Amino acid sequence: MWVADRLGKMSLREQVAQMIFVRLPDYSGGFEPEAFSGFRSNIIDFGAGGVLVRRNDPLHQAALLSDLQDLSAVPLLVAQDMQRGAGTQVSFATEFPGPLALAASGIDSLAEKAGKITAREADVLGVHLVLGPAVQADSRSPDAIGGDQVNKGDARIAIRIADRFVRGIRNQGVMAATREVEFPWVSSSDSLAAKTSSGRYDFDGLILSDAIASFDGGAVPLDSLILENIRQGVDAFLGPPDPALVRDTVLRLISSGLIEESHVSAIVERILVAKTRAGLIKRPNISVNSVRSVLTDPEHRYLARYIARKSIVALRDGGYVSELTGGDKIMLVVLTDEYTDSSGAFQSFINEYHDTIYVKQSITTSNWQTKQSEMMKDVARIDRILFADLTSETRSVPDVTSAIMGVLLEAEAPVLYAGMGSAENAAHLPDGVNTILLSFGSSTPSIRAMVDAIFGRADVCAELPVALSVRYPAGSGYCIRQRFPRIGTAGEVGLDAGRLRELERLLNSAIADSAFPGAAIAVGRKGVLALLDGFGRFTYESGPSVSPKTIYDLASLTKVIATTTAIMQLYESQAIDLNDPVAKYLPEFSQNNKSGVTIRDLLTHTGGLIPFRPFYESEESSRSDVIAQILSDSLYYEPGSQSRYSDFGPIVLALIVEQLSGMSFDEYAQKRIFAPLEMRDTGYREASPVPDETVAPTEIDDYFRYRLVQGSVHDETAYILGGTAGHAGLFSTVEDLSKFAFMILSDGRIGDRTFLKPETLRLFTSAVDTDYTHTRALGWDTKSQAGYSSAGRYFGRLAFGHTGFTGTSIWFDRDQSLYLILLTNRVYPSRDNLGHRSVRPAVADVVFRAIRSSPDKAYFGKGQ
Questions:
Q1: Residue 552: which of 728, 772, 352 has the closest Cα?
Q2: Residue 847 has what pLDDT?
Q3: How far is the C-alpha of 419 from the C-alpha of 315, rounded, in Å?
């Protein structure tokens, strides 16, 4: 009824105007009086059937379209190119990786989910018709592909991915259009236009053309171009430079008899029907207030990042990723062209993981030859080369990339090629390239995923979705396993970001209440650092702000991070047996009836050793004196009869490590633990009287050292021992400890290497007393089942962890694949401060309550 009524009231001139979508200028807000006056004239007074929106800011776009709809007698159909999500054109909206990335992910449902999110964002932006995705079936070599297009030989992939994307859009009530170049094949998909033998399209939707969008009076006359388009079934013209000229040309073709008036009426009827399908019979209701909440929905970005991460293909793996270390000096070469430049985002993401980019060279496809000498002048001082290809996805430059790579290979350093431009570039690279990674695009999520892949922060296991060449057929690809946790978001691993934000209030409140001057925190789950942050300062009075890179005195966390880990390694190598007597390795320990004390007894604090002795009160104590005293001490209680915490057990265990390894304990820990785990800011420090202001201070010591302790171990016994001991002395950051925690929850693996065996980890982190008369595991502690626990109320029965006197703690919940690290300097200015005791469990409770789904649940598709 509405369609017939509207159509009956339209003049032929008004009908033809409905066939034209007027293009809005980029970033048009309509706030300038002259600009908005132009919009009224060219769109409203003209009587345009629709609007083609290009690049814009979200709030400006929604507000302007809302105003134009209010002014228009016939509702406007709004179209926008969103073939890779609304973020393709709209700032702050979500941009997804392209079709090839979706195909490489191996999970077709991701395309449909991306379509749903695109439609949701399009709706609040005032868009009814999403233009995209592009599907190209051409006659080029089967070896050739473009960034957003799939070649003739892979038309089925193109159709499948496009169909799922369009289905997702339509399921949300938004219209979608796929873009053809030609139609040499007939699609069985209901979302793609199919050309019939009669030359008409067996398709009840709209067929739009941008054939005259860039018309400049070229060789083909405008009237011929328009006539051919209409005869081929085109219903409307997108963004012509002169809408009035197009309208008048169509009217002239009608008056000359070349186009029937009834044909135009049929077209306009289809356009009006499309407007009813878009819900435009009722006045369009664009809620500007919803734009911000929808576009900032974290779920949208989780999906984009997930797709990007699942789609990285390792076309060649020569070990670059698995062998890369934090200390390697890297030369970064970034290639861009006139069409795209995402080098800033790429470098900023790299800086999160690697701080020794020794040489940075930005070159373009037009100036690279003139920069050869500059590019190679410092190459002798670098360890590795990272070549990032950020050229346009749809314009391959294989000759250029191959030539540049030939120059870089002269340096004889391992080279990684990170292809974020046209995948075709990778097919022509020389044999000497160590590793080739492809992302099929340079959207922000794709760049983030590429950086994660390069630095071992995510699994890479996708397969090439199309054939690049005979050498690289479809299905090519290697698996490279994640080595370290990646910086991610809470939602992607089933944690509620809103709840985690409560930690900011909690920790800032604790700082205000003088529980500690500052705190660094890390929350990790399923390979992702969901939270990595710092709060407060080094002291209450002044000092640097705390960050994830702030170095803290770990105190008793030394017992598990260094000592217990070393014992686990010796246990696995069968250098020790847990039931062996300590005296087997340190005969002096057998003095005073201690010959029956075992290594297991020391690990569980059941060895009968004295809990503590204030060696610092003796003016003659030295390292040798302390060790001699501990080895010759009498038993404090019958071994195995009870569990009493003692620093002396870990001290003795470290001596055993030294005895068996032939290395000092700090040297062993550095070579066998910290270096393999890339814990570059972790280690022991000399017991120096000179403060190190780069380290968070501990106590103002007025009883032993009579100064502020900063950068030197706080524990007095460890200080006398020279700074290195089995019970204390280790310094680290939450960033470094997150690498250790990732290894623990990855069943002892780092990438493709086994650092510790899963069964060893389970043995050492499980409570030894199933009756819970005490909570000790082997070196580790477990959560007490009643009363106070620094792990809070909700961490499970299998939770394990440890705390440190200076205000440090680390806890794991194996069932939830969750870890929490909290480092503070609560002993500043005095150890008498106990405010941290209530904060630790409160933090743990907030983290656990943030869990909203299992980490093993397939959140976006099959598997995480």
A1: 728
A2: 98
A3: 10
Q: What is the DSSP letter of 213?
A: T
As a three-state string, the secondary structure of 629-673 is HHHHCCCCCCCCCCCCCCCHHHHHHHHHHHHHHCCCHHHHHHHHH
The helix (run of H) or strand (run of E) holding residue 601 is helix 599-603
Query: What DSSP assignment string belongs to 423-464?
Result: GGGGGG--TT-SEEEE-S--SHHHHHHHHHHHTT-S-B----
Compute the distance between CA of residue 40 and CA of residue 334 in angstroms, rounded to an integer: 45
Which amino acid, 397? Answer: V
Q: What is the pLDDT of residues 582-620, one digit of tens each?
A: 999 999 999 999 999 999 999 999 999 999 999 999 877
Classify residue 722 as exposed, middle or buried by CB count within 10 Å of its CB (0-12, 13-18, 19+): middle
Helix (H, G, I), strand (E, B) or coil at 113: helix
Between the alpha carbon of residue 747 and those of residues 191, 691, 744, the distances in Å are 46, 39, 6
Residues in the chain: 864
Sign of CA dihedral 593, 599, 602, 604: negative
Say whether the peptide bond before residue 829 is cis (omega within 30 degrees of 0): yes
**801 near 775, Cβ under 8 Å?**
no
Element (H, E) at 68: helix 58-71
Selection from 750, 566, 533, 759 nearest residue 651 by Cα: 566
- Cβ neighbours for 185, distance < 8 A, ≥ 6 positions apart: 137, 155
Contact 565, 653 (CB under 8 A): no
Question: How many Cα atoms sit within 13 Å of 355 on the Cβ side?
Answer: 5
**pTM for the full model?**
0.89
Q: Cα 792 to the chain's mean position, in Å? A: 29
Beta strands in 459-557 (DSSP E): 486-487, 518-525, 528-536, 552-553
Q: How far apart are CA 17 and CA 65, in angstroms?
A: 18
From CA 609, how far away is CA 215, in angstroms rounded? 90
pLDDT digits (tens, 9 = 90+) for 395-423: 899 999 999 999 999 998 999 999 998 99
Contact between residue 95 and residue 445 where contact means Cβ atoms under 8 Å apart: yes
Give the 3-state secondary structure of 660-720: HHCCCHHHHHHHHHHCCCCCCCCEECCCCCCCCCCECCCCEECCCCCEECCCCCCCHHHHH
Residue 418, H or E segment = strand 415-419
Q: How far is CA 692 from CA 552, 688, 689, 695, 710, in A?
A: 12, 9, 9, 6, 6
